[in-house]
């Protein structure tokens, strides 16, 4: 079983993410993490039942290997990885003095999955999915990628 620390060290593989429909990943808590020897590598929840496993196998139509992780911990990573691949920047508010045109997936991965590095401005970008977290980084002058949970609006930039 993968620990939180091991999940945090995983890097995003957009090709693997695109092999698993987002609806399947979110509903069944499936995290695609890459390919090894032409087989898809997944992380599945430890409490996955046989019926759901068979459904995933049927939907993917692709050979896969898997490791397991706690469902609640895994759910956060599924959300983050799919958001990073499929989000675009929209509904930018006046709270940002600079609105970055990049997407999260365009930024370089770091050892912390909640932080990316922007090679253009040479700054860390912090993933925030709560106003409290956003405010904390705003006060420190950090760049953020902010997802408003209520509206699903996404903004990447430097807050005022």
From TrEMBL:
<dbReference type="InterPro" id="IPR007831">
    <property type="entry name" value="T2SS_GspE_N"/>
</dbReference>
<feature type="domain" description="Type II secretion system protein GspE N-terminal">
    <location>
        <begin position="7"/>
        <end position="77"/>
    </location>
</feature>
<protein>
    <recommendedName>
        <fullName>Type II secretion system protein GspE N-terminal domain-containing protein</fullName>
    </recommendedName>
</protein>
<dbReference type="Pfam" id="PF05157">
    <property type="entry name" value="MshEN"/>
</dbReference>
<dbReference type="InterPro" id="IPR037257">
    <property type="entry name" value="T2SS_E_N_sf"/>
</dbReference>
